[in-house]
Amino acid sequence: MTELFISAFITLFVVIDPPGCAPIYAGLTKGATQRQRTVMAVRATLIAAIILLIFALFGEDLLGALHIELNAFRIAGGLMLFWIAWEMVFEKRTQRREERAEKVAATPEVEDVSVFPMAMPMLAGPGAIAAIMLLMNEADGLEASLVVMGALGAVLVLTMLALVAAGPLIKLLGDRVEAVITRLLGVLLAALAAQYVIDGLRGAFLL
């Protein structure tokens, strides 16, 4: 069971990628207070946990009933991520936030990114859904299934901690450095989104 836990943990850690999601989350929550970032990080992690738990237990039956292939998730998730990346690179999110601040005399409303794009498709994306479904299918018996779920829980806890800590670290770098990093991460996120779409198209047309 120890080997199963380690294997499941490594697989889910690589797929969910907490170190990679953290700086992107910091860029998406630019202008939010630390408390708002913490609340959104916890909410995103919990929502992702619920989504992955549902697919772990009922994934194959659910997709089969809806006649939806996993490649469709890859393509749709890639397109949504690309839109977010475009806004990060060209600072459209900052412009929209400033316009909203002018309308709200008090504390400006901070856009909640916990559900989209953090919980879905970044944390509970096609890769994570496919991984948890595969691991659960390979698990033999209730005990093995609980071990896989424990590995998922450990990865999500680390992910939540990484998201919470990302904000202060980026803030220490200053606005200019943060702007450069945000745009760079936007380009990387666009590449990731394109890869999602490519993988989805390849899987849909070549299989």
Automatic annotation (TrEMBL):
Annotated GO CC locations: plasma membrane
Transmembrane segments: 6-28, 40-59, 71-90, 115-136, 148-173, 180-198
InterPro entries: Multi_antbiot-R_MarC
Subcellular location: Cell membrane
Membrane topology, record value: Multi-pass membrane protein
The keyword Membrane is assigned to this record: yes
The entry's keywords: Cell membrane, Membrane, Transmembrane, Transmembrane helix
Recorded family membership: Belongs to the UPF0056 (MarC) family.
Listed name of the protein: UPF0056 membrane protein
Species of provenance: Aurantiacibacter gangjinensis
